[in-house]
Amino acid sequence: MATPHDAFPNRHIGPDADATSDILTTLGYGSSQELAAAALPASIAQQGPIGLAPALDETEALATLRGFAAKNTVKKQLIGAGYYDTVTPAVIRRNVVENPGWYTAYTPYQPEISQGRLEALLNFQTMVEDLTGLPIAGASLLDEATAVAEAVQMMARLNTKAAKKGGVVLLDAALHASSINITRARAAAVDIPVEIVDITAETVAAREDALIGVVVSNPGTTGGLRDDLGEVIAAVHEQDGLVTVACDLLAQVLVTSPGELGADIAVGSAQRFGVPLFFGGPHAAFLACRENMQRKLPGRIVGVSVDAEGTPAYRLSLQTREQHIRRDKATSNICTAQALLAVVASFYAVWHGPQGLREIATAVHGRATALAVGLSEAGLTLAHDRFFDTVTVQVQDAAATVAAACDKGFNLRHVDDTHVGVSVGESTTDGDIAELLQVIGNVASSVTTTEFTAQDGPLSDLLRTDDILTHPVFHSVSSETQMMRYMRRLADRDLALDRTMIPLGSCTMKLNAAVSMEPITWPEFAGIHPMVPEDQATGWWELIDDLEGRLAKITGYAAVSVQPNAGSQGELAGLLAIRRFHVANGDDQRTLVLIPASAHGTNAASAALAGLKVVGVKNAEDGSVDLDDLDAKIEKYGEQIAGIMITYPSTHGVFEEHVREVCSKVHATGGQVYIDGANLNALVGLAQPGEFGGDVSHLNLHKTFTIPHGGGGPGVGPVCVGEHLIPFLPSDPWADVTVEPDAQEGRPVSAANQGSAGVLPISWTYIAMMGDEGLTEASRMALVNANYISRQLADSFPTLYTGENGLVAHECILDLRDLTKQSGVTAADVTKRLMDFGFHAPTLAFPVAGTLMVEPTESEDKHELDRFITALRTIRAEIDEVIAGDVAVEDSVLRHAPFTAESVIRDDFEDAVSHGHFSREKAAFPVRTLRRDKYFPAVRRIDDAYGDRNLMCSCPPLENFDIEADIESEN
Fold first, then answer.
1. Which letter, b or e, does each residue of 604-629 get, where b requires 16 or more Cβ atoms within 10 Å of its Cβ?
2. Could you confirm whether domain 548-769 is CATH 2.40.50.140?
3. Residue ranges of the alpha helices (H) in 626-727?
4. The domain 107-350 is classified under which CATH number: 3.40.640.10, 3.40.50.150, 3.40.190.10, 3.30.465.10?
5. Radius of gyration of the chain (CA)
6. What tens digit of pLDDT does each residue of 509-524 get?
7. SS3 label, residue 253
8. What digits encode the pLDDT tens for the residues 232-258?
């Protein structure tokens, strides 16, 4: 039995009883309950406990999870359909997936302290570019189906001539059903006409209407590889259309690339590069394109720039495309992607190198060929003569064949009544092929594929002739020692939560407990294909049902779907539910959504993707929604209003007193209320969005419920709805594409029915171990810690907005605007200087330019809070030196920050770095405690403009880093 001291809430919440008492004394409150009551409007305060089951200790939680896992049945997964058996190298699983240095990092918006994960993501981009034969690739998308949808919208943005003529997009009937269903839903929302056709050069040439573009699947969902892809691409281009190829990265190791054949865009999933099945996700998708399309690319692009000393450095490029800047005009609504999984895939390529990947691809293809030959010799008919890894064969009774294979330990794909599919994976053996021949074809035969070469098989005239993965990074590892040290070296270049507080407002970088992380790699969870029979995933379904029920109780809503695999997709799902609800009620005219000026950038971008037009609502001086402007917009637009999107507590870091009034005003006009759950960490156990006026919310499990951010993803964004919106929750992405979707139902938003199920045990474990009181106290302590920072920094950096009692919610906005006017020191200067203190910066310039938004979370202890406060007070003293005229801002330590180890030990430090205006000690060790534990950034301040002017989004030549020159000088 755990003692109270060892109970999980005490391990999760940073300040102990004594520290909490000290903090509350500083703030003038006797308890966390008293402070929370003073901060939270009484009009929305939750009455009574959440009503969850009693909290479990760590041992009990793991035992319960073992019970769930035991109800899942692990078989050899040969179903395919976009999800394939792969082997996660132990060195990558241990050193990345299970390493907090990798999984607790945030999106690399501060690139100087993110060089490690940026390099790994740049490796991912380079890998994708090489294998697809296209020069530009992004740093990962959410899944293959949404990547196809993103490509369709990208083609529409690029081919405006055809789009303006009402042009159509043709979807290959050979695409995965999820890709077709997701794309149809997304295209319908923004009025892009799509048709599902059997695509050939002849059918394309016969089109008389305007053609925006075509999506071709190669291989197709049942495994067929095209020998006419070049002809199809040429025919589409002849019609002034664009071509997207949905492809398989492992097949591209062997097969001629889409880029070489003339494709404009390539999309797909990187799952089979070492990422477990995870019951459907998270898996990194990719999108690559031609060079002139880079500014229309969705998601993030990692690029190469230079730092203050001209050293090559990595950063996120062309961010002006993204939702936080472009809002409803952005290229996509993607914020959280699948960065950690892209990192895993990139390390998989580094670990195996081009030769290893060829061996894996050749072995997979060889065993598929052996299966095909054996089945043909048995008199069975194959669906395709050309294939990479998937053999689809005609049988008398598909259900009986699938059942017989299941009895032998294999899951096959039930294609239709008379066809089954077998997708060979990395761990499939010759013995497995022999057994499958017996099961499917009644053939008793031994199989040996060790001497197989692709040149002798069915792909002989489709093979690529160019070299792949030629950059030295993919040839740099030949031993596990080298690999281990490479991953450690990159991790050491980053600042993650395992090293320091990450006080990012609105991002909730809290503890990701090891006990919560442990179960996700258990084979009984990680090894389940998303399309297995339900009785093989009983444990998964029970866990998901239980989690959805707990989330519904916490939020006060009637039902929850965990399908959305990012917060942005949760937003989209919620808005699609609102839109479809109105259409079902005959209110087609309700196409406007009200969004306050302070809203998250993704809100406006998601609204645009849902086919809604954005109407801005002003904020009052105190940061709340301006009720007069809201009334004016309601009077002006009336029955055109679909709803309002509000964030609560607001992005200004306060609990708005009149949130119920805002909800009531919108409801009175017939609109729905969407409450963004990004800031739910201030509400759990204290107030319920579904009770104080929300009709729908999305949550961020990667914020409030401790799924780690993974350097930019994965995330999970469940959508929660009231009773009347339940019919419009996300639907099955694998529904029959020949059946028109029911107008009274929802639409799918992710490729897998349960989205990124693989990481759901993390949130389940957290909620189960915290219990009612633990979750509620976590919310209270989030308020306590934020108010402590706000109060302690009041004289140095005043808080911009506070609530009725001078309190903030779970975050505070520090106002630097007046200091900038006096000194010229910007908020950006402060973020870079904080790196020299070993801190990740707060959120910069959002939601108010010239400010920093700080969210410490409940997990940070008083010592860490005080260390952060000391750092900012020291920086304020450095600003005061500029204000006093002791040093010009251009010569100040602030403007030159951050400092690398090399920059402060160089002989010409005073001439080249400080110009005699500050010492080495002041640059590197501004407070004495840093002498014991110092983090040095890998690069100095990066030139963002240079990186955008000179976009390079693949691995630069090693000579750019002068490595050879350094070695020569050392020798």
1. bbbbbbbbbebbebebeebbbbbeeb
2. no
3. 627-637, 659-668
4. 3.40.640.10
5. 28
6. 999 999 999 999 999 9
7. coil
8. 999 999 999 999 999 999 999 999 999
